[in-house]
Amino acid sequence: QVQLAESGGGLVQPGESLRLACVGSGFTFSSSKMGWYRQAAGKEREFVAGIFSDGTTYYGDHVKGRFTISRDNAKNTVYLQMNNLKTEDTAVYYCTGGKRLLEDWGQGTLVNVSS
What we know:
10 strands, mainly beta
């Protein structure tokens, strides 16, 4: 069975940084496209970042220049480095990937940016 598990969320102040991680299992991670989405309270789920197996990356308009997605295939892990966090980044961050991209999701990790 496919399993995705996010970690690394927490409470930070505006301008600070945070690094999220997502560990995948039950599929061939190294050949899979992976992505991060987020969902704020009362809002729709929003694309944050994606990465292909060859390392090509894509970012949502609101995070480009501040966030960086990367992967470590040996650890079946995809990361999201978030710098210069803003209050608008507050949301539950979800990981997705594999053959069932946008169908298989982790449980999410909460990022709360507040002063």
